Amino acid sequence: MFKIQLSLLIISIVLYKNDAIDYRYHNYSEMTSILQDLASRYPSKASLVEIGKSQGGKSLLAMALSAYAPNQHVLLRPEVKYIGNIHGNEVVGLE
User: Fewest Cβ atoms closer than 10 Å to its Cβ: which of 9, 43, 56, 64?
Assistant: First the structure.
């Protein structure tokens, strides 16, 4: 499990250079823009989908990252789903 999490972290870092990220709180519009930018820059590795709407009507977004096509499930290849900040009492960070 740790190897998979580490792999996802490395993929995220490789896909989006550290110097391109402004290390401060990003609002909804900025985060949406960053995710859309990643998906458009790396369409063979990243896919952004809307999984619903918030109480305020904002899109709830999910990003799939993969060494293969991000929407392609490879038989017998393990997959990981990482979720954060879904409920108010499950804080994993500000963003």
Answer: 56
